[in-house]
Amino acid sequence: MTIKHAFACFIFSSLLSSQTLAGPIIQGSGDNYVAWEAEIGTITDPDGDQRTFEIQNDASASGGQAIVAPRSGDQSIDDGHATYSILFNQAGTYELFVLMRGSGGCCNSLYIPPSGDFGLDLVTNNRISPNTSSGPYDWVDTRGEGNYTVDISDVGTVLEFTVGARERLTFVDRFVLWNRQDGNNPFPSDLNDLNSLRNSTIPAPGSLAIMIIALAGLYRVRTKRVI
């Protein structure tokens, strides 16, 4: 095997192994929003205390599942995280809406870390709480915490958005980031209208793997002809 062949095989195997997970959430070309289900995120435990989000089946959730914080959080940026990769096609100021519910009693909330690829323009207490402590899922308007800025240089680049498990048994079903486009595209007057928004596209890993295999085959055929 020549060095060229060995290098091609290495690149091919690296690309194939890197696509074992689904791709980023991609904003539709004509959409002024990005919408996705909470359970598709990458769940991590930065502080290693084995207390983080869990995915739970829930018939009342929009996708049949939700993520839930299993305990009283320590209000730390290093507590349990759910991270989402997003590819924007529109620059602008985005406002976050979260479909969530409490578990009854007190102290249900979600934590928004102040840092990241695109952070809050304004941070008050980094805490998003359900409108009710129990009951059905309800959309929460988080504009009181601030907005999210996507610059021109961010368009076409995969950015990460992270939320944290702040307080016990907070259920999170869905997210929408809405581009208000300098006031020309105001958010829905009735937040229930957000339910009609389709989820943004997430490329299937299989389609990417097939493309890589096809490219590898074409490369091999071309190499044989040259030889």
From TrEMBL:
Organism: Photobacterium sanctipauli
Top-level taxon in the UniProt lineage: Bacteria
Sorted UniProt keywords: Membrane, Signal, Transmembrane, Transmembrane helix
Endpoints of the signal sequence: 1-22
Keyword Signal: yes
Regions crossing the membrane: 202-221
UniProt-recorded name of the protein: PEP-CTERM sorting domain-containing protein
